[in-house]
Amino acid sequence: MARSAVFVALATTSAAVRAEPPLTLGETQRIATERSKQIEASEFAVSASKDLSVTAAERPDPIAKIGVENLPIDGSERFSVQQDFMTMRSVGIMQEITRPTKLRARTMESEQAVQLAEAQKAQALVEVQRDSALAWLNRYYAEAQERAILEQVGVARLDQTAAEAAYRGGHGTAADVLAARAALAEAEDLDLDASRTVRGAKLALERWIGEAAERPLAGHPSIDSIPLHKHSLDSQLAEHPEILALQRREELARAGAEVARADRHPDWSVEFMYSQRGIGYSNMVTLELTVPLEVRRAYRQDPKLAAKLAEASQAKAEREDMLRAHAAEISTLIDAWDSARERLERYRNSIIPLSADRTVAARAAYGGGKATLNDLLLAQRAEIDARLKALQLEESAARLWAQLTFLSSTQSDADAAAPPIDSSRGELP
Q: Where does 38-413 sit in CATH, by number?
């Protein structure tokens, strides 16, 4: 009874998995974006920056004051607030008058902080889209290689059966049987390794999209075009999230320098106080203006300004260096992508057809007694190696395509470039 329940549960689970629609690359990116804690943290950072920006244009809160002045503490009038003519009960308020230029500088600094947080959020989004796409492609090609190797296992089994039948009929040799068995064992070993690779790829994809990683995959997008051109990389990379983040950091440092420059001019404070004296004595009011004296500006305010200007120069230098580094790196990736596609076409149009023809010729020669089984096995192995190499080249081109395509969060959805689902895509060419 228990065993039957287990079988029913497994069958139900399997049916549920089959009922789910295929998982596309674009949907993988959307799910990964929704589940990403990195993006969630970036959104909180943006929200915090916006909240802080609200206070930047506000002057400090006024300060209320209450107290007793000139209270006697000895003699016959000690602790009396009415007998001594100098004793006063006072209440007042003080307000710091912040300069408008300083408020504008602080507002600009807070706005630049918001833009930096948004640039860092865009950078996190790009990283999630790129890495989840690479995980999807990794599983896609792992499964394609597993299918190719399973096909080879089937051929090896047929060869072993034919070799054993020929040996029993007196037309083959024991060496042929052993060679066929060795070829089958080698193919089964490759299949075990391919299965392990597929399991690892599913686990890596699960990190991004959770249980959806168990769904079957749909066809992959076209990898024959990228949104970059080697001759205009400088302008295109200006929108790269890392470059933008450094640019926002530079602008934030310059805004901070303006705040430091404004801080070199002190803010005044105004205080008004009403003082009540004892019966028979006049009440009084006091109006005070407080002005800080900058007696050591060269050691207090000026170093802060110099530090902010240095931070801005540092961010600018780092941005220019990163722009050059990214331009060189992406040029290299574009060359590698072009090379992988060119080699893939050579394999599809020349090397694989020749290997297949060699296998057909070797099988015909073996059937006619003009070649040994070992000759046939070598031809088959050369063909499967060529097909697996083509898959590796296609995977390499696809990974390079993903790295070049998802450089910016403004790139179009991966599904927009996808051709109709073709179950033969990803199989051996």
A: 1.20.1600.10
